[in-house]
Amino acid sequence: MAKVELKKPIVEEISAVIQDAQSVVLVDHRGLTVEQDTELRKQLREAGITYKVYKNTMMNFAFKGTDFESLTPYLEGPSALAVSKEDATAPARVLCKFAKTANALEVKGGVVEGTLYDAKGIEDVSKIPSREELLSRLLGSMQSPVANLARVLNQMAHPHVKQHLPLKRHLLKLQPRKHRQKHKVKCRDLHTEQRYNYY
Predict the structure, then answer these.
(1) Who's near 10: CB < 8 A, 6+ residues apart?
(2) β-pairing verdict for 50-54 and 115-118
């Protein structure tokens, strides 16, 4: 069987892996221990990232005519491929974080949403929060206004609450002295109840 025929299935596999990918990042994995490599693969898998080691010639063939052809200059030395089809920043984020504790892992470069980045650029991309983090921050920023609105609506539904007490006290002053004590006690009880319910 000709060598070209042997290579074809591998090239097709790589083409399938990068098809519709949001990002592809190349790394040099030389020097990683077995434990480090196992842990890296685990973290990438949990993040929904496909991680494969291929020969540069195979990737070169698969990249041709795609958005990832610009990665060809980075195909030198041993190369591993990290691909995400969901979260464009996930490969950069996981790989760069892991590289801080595993110096043997070298990020070469990558393509994120059609844009080519060198190692420094991928590091910058890695600092972009994940979609989950952004949603969490958005929900957190929305909680305060919602809580304030809830308090306003509650006050509107209970017009006898605290904000009307000053007016009631003013009205008491206009009443004859002999009627004030009874109303003062009632007003004081209402104020105590208000403090109990809302504080």
Answers:
(1) 54, 55, 58
(2) unpaired
Residues 53/79, Cβ–Cβ less than 8 Å: yes
For 151, which DSSP code?
H
Q: So what's the pLDDT on residue 47?
A: 95
User: What is the C-alpha to C-alpha distance for residues 105 and 119, in angstroms, rounded to an integer?
Assistant: 12
**Chain-centre distance of CA 144, in angstroms?**
21
CB 149 within 8 Å of CB 157: no
Residue with tokens 């060598």: 3
Q: Residue 193: how many CB atoms within 10 A of its CB?
A: 12
- pLDDT tens-place string over residues 43-77: 999 999 999 999 999 999 999 999 999 999 999 99
* Tokens representing residue 20 in the block: 């519709």
